[in-house]
Structure formats: C-alpha cells, structure tokens
Amino acid sequence: QVQLVESGGGLVQAGGSLRLSCAASGSFFSNNAMVWYRQAPGSEREFVASITSGGSTMYADSVKGRFIISRDNAKNTIYLQMNSLKPEDTAVYYCYVRWGPSNYWGQGTQVTVSS
After folding, report:
1. Pairing state of beta strands 109-114 and 10-13?
2. Phi, psi (degrees; rounded to nearest 5) at 55
3. Using CA atoms, how far apart are residues 29 and 23, in angstroms rounded to an integer?
4. Percent of the chain clearing pLDDT 70 (strictly above)
5. Phi, psi (rounded to 5 degrees) for 72
6. pLDDT string in tens for the chain (115-residue length)
7. Which positions ≥6 away from 50 have C-beta within 8 Å?
C-alpha cells in the first residue's frame, strides 16, 4: 500500500519561504522518482519539480532558481524548499509517484502567498 502525506503548507508573504515535506510509506521509495505538482484555483494541475532515485532533479521554468527539491531515503521523505515566493505560487501542492502500473497522489497541502 502506497501512502503519500504532504505537510508544511501555509500562508506567507511574497518574498518569503516555505519548506514542504512528503512522507511516503511503502517499499517503493528509494527506487523511484518522486514529483511535486501544484494546482491553482481554476487551473489544471502542473508540474513543479522532480527528483530521481539517484538525485537528479528537474524544475518547471516558473520555479527554477527559487525552488529546490531534495530527498532523504532514510526517512522516505522528499522536500520542496520554496524561496522568493510570489503570489502566483499560490496553489495546492501535491506529491506524486508512479509505481508499477499505478499513479499515487497525496492529499495536498495549501500554499498561499500574499502580496
């Protein structure tokens, strides 16, 4: 059984920082890429950042240079350090993994950036 639980969201002023966490259960973690997505009101869910099992990372252009994705395999957890936050970063942030034929999503954590 795969479970993903996000935490760390909240309300922050523009220019501030937040760190999101996604704790995963299951034996899949260390061998799989993990991904952060986000969904703003009225918008489709969009890719934010990913990290492979070996630690290679990719970022959406909109967050490159401001967000950092990392993982701790000993804790079965990934992180998203978000710096220089902008109002347009306001969204629900989701953790995602594809394992075998199935897609798994967390419940999401709300990030609100005030101007």
Report:
1. parallel
2. 95, 5
3. 10
4. 100
5. -125, 100
6. 899 999 999 999 999 999 999 999 978 888 899 999 999 999 999 999 999 999 999 999 999 999 999 999 999 999 999 999 999 999 999 999 998 899 999 999 999 999 9
7. 33, 34, 35, 36, 57, 58, 69
Amino acid 26: pLDDT: 79
For residues 39-48, one letter each, b for 16 or more C-beta atoms within 10 angstroms of the residue's C-beta and e for the rest, the string is eeeeeeeeeb
State whether the Cα torsion 95-98-102-103 is positive or negative: positive
Count Cα neighbours of 59 within 13 Å in the Cβ-side half-sphere.
13
**Are the C-beta atoms of residues 109 and 20 closer than 8 Å to each other?**
yes
Cα 86 to chain centroid distance, Å, stands at 16
Number of neighbours of residue 61 by Cβ within 10 angstroms: 6
Say which residues have a Cβ less than 8 Å from residue 99's Cβ, sequence separation at least 6.
2, 26, 28, 32
